[in-house]
TrEMBL record:
<protein>
    <recommendedName>
        <fullName>Nuclease HARBI1</fullName>
    </recommendedName>
</protein>
Length: 145
């Protein structure tokens, strides 16, 4: 019994590793409108509009386990990926997020954005083809037209 109690005391002396909360800055607060546009190809107001448009789909799926990445940073990481086309520049350049996390984020956020596409993308109807084509011709000479 004494050995057991001695072992318990030894275990109490071992330091417990704690998760370290990373301070992740919000780039929309950190950068001005010009810098945000350079990095994401959207102005701050447009990023906030996109965020509010897709947040209804998003928040009920967010888990608070571990160290979750805030929803705004998930959107910004996805937009940064669209601009650069590489995961590495997203993970190292701005957020210090692992590549696997960035891959999951981009996949999930792209689905949220695509779900809203029908509200913003309109293709011309057959009745409007001729009017739209004439408007394009009024813009000036175009190759192949």
């Amino acid at each position: 019994m004494a050995n057991y109690l001695d072992r318990l005391r030894q275990l109490d002396d071992i330091p417990v590793q704690r998760n370290v909360l990373r301070e992740r800055n919000n780039p929309l607060e950190e950068y001005n409108n010009v810098d945000v546009f350079k990095r994401y190809r959207f102005e701050k107001d447009n990023v906030v509009h996109i965020f509010h448009t897709i947040k209804e789909n998003k928040y009920h799926l967010m888990e608070n386990r571990g160290l979750p990445i805030p929803p705004m940073l998930q959107l910004l990481a996805t937009l940064r990926f669209y601009v650069t086309g590489t995961l590495e520049s997203v993970q190292y350049d701005l957020y210090n997020i692992s590549q696997s996390s960035v891959s999951r984020i981009v996949s999930k956020e792209s689905g949220f954005i695509a779900a809203e596409a029908n509200n913003y993308i309109r293709f011309p109807t057959p009745n409007n083809y001729h009017r739209i084509f004439k408007n394009i011709l009024l813009l000036g000479p175009c190759l192949g037209l």
